[in-house]
Amino acid sequence: MTGPPADTDPPTGAGADPLAVAGAAALVAALRGARQTVAAAESLTAGLFTAALAGVPGASTVLRGGLVVYATDLKHTLAGVDAELLAGLGPVAAGTAEQLAVGARTRCGADWGVGLTGVAGPDPQGGQPVGTVFLAVAGPRHTSTQRLKLAGDRWTIRIGATRAAVEELLRTVEAAERP
Questions:
Q1: Measuring CA to CA, which residue among 144, 129, 131 is closest to residue 175?
Q2: In angstroms, what CA-CA distances link 123 with 54, 94, 112, 120, 167?
Q3: Which candidate, 166, 85, 176, 90, places its Cα nearest to that of 125?
Q4: Of all helices (H) and strands (E), which one includes residue 24?
Q5: Structure pTM?
Q6: Collapsed DSSP state (helix, strand, coil) of residue 94
Q7: Cα 72 to chain center, whole Å?
Q8: In order along the chain (179 residues), what is the average pLDDT of each group of 10 residues?
């Protein structure tokens, strides 16, 4: 993908949504066109993905909800991440992101689930360096997980993870709609 069309770029200037993310409008449109919904379980982004979608007019037709599971125990109790997986791999792992995505999808009754976990800094966590992000997308037919390495301060890493999630879900929804 070369980037979203200009009409999906976030607005700028007075009154602009400070949480607007490029591609969010295109994602909402793609989900609406497919008559599908999304939910998220977010750790390091703490609701930024959900807020970015909610800022798009018409998002209420596709956004089921979100779980902010910043604390490790909430990943288990709210999102359904296996306690043994958390104890073994830790909260910042591909398996954790996958189970967050599946948990968001099933617990919120959505077609798609997004899971985000990682380390925004300033210190490493559980052996994972700052900028490590695991992103998972769970859908009707499969779940995919990817590891990102992002650079910058806490905000830059968190908004970068949000952008990556918007782009990945948009790509996945569009691919699922192709014959």
A1: 144
A2: 31, 20, 32, 8, 27
A3: 90
A4: helix 24-34
A5: 0.91
A6: helix
A7: 17
A8: 40 64 94 98 98 96 98 98 98 98 98 98 96 97 97 97 97 90
